[in-house]
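Extended Data, panel c. Modelled sequence:
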Amino acid sequence: MEEVVLVDELDQEIGTMEKIEAHRKGALHRAFSILLFNSKGEVLLQKRAQTKYHSPGLWTNTCCSHPKPGELMQTAVRRKLMHEMGIDLLPTYSHKFIYKIQLGDLIEHEVDHIYIGKFDGQPAINKEEVEDWKYMGTKEIRTDILANPDRYSHWFKLILEHLNTD
């Protein structure tokens, strides 16, 4: 059973809950999103595997997940980046924001900690988590989101709104 860390609006830990239950109830919990940029300034995107419990087959940021109860955020970030993308590095904390969105019968309600890093290689993707990957410039991504919003995860669109890269 995978648990998430429940938090209040100030990101103070208030307990834990089973991950799917937290998403069914819309309980505010801690999460992180990673954006890796190559030397050209392009973002390494992943296409979520079709087997994901929500947002399958959508393009999104390099990696995202939840820290385990008692796990340091930096440890969780490095662990999941290696697990999903086969990349061993620790990106730098940038900022955090709260969002809430209905996704079918699930509700994403997260304090999302954003981490940014540099990576110029090819990922070794975990096919259970990631269907595909590519590098894209932020201007190109924003243009494609306007034309094809249903191809991208909701949280990635929100992250881009907070990102100063152009």
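The mean pLDDT is 94. This feature is highlighted in the accompanying rendering.
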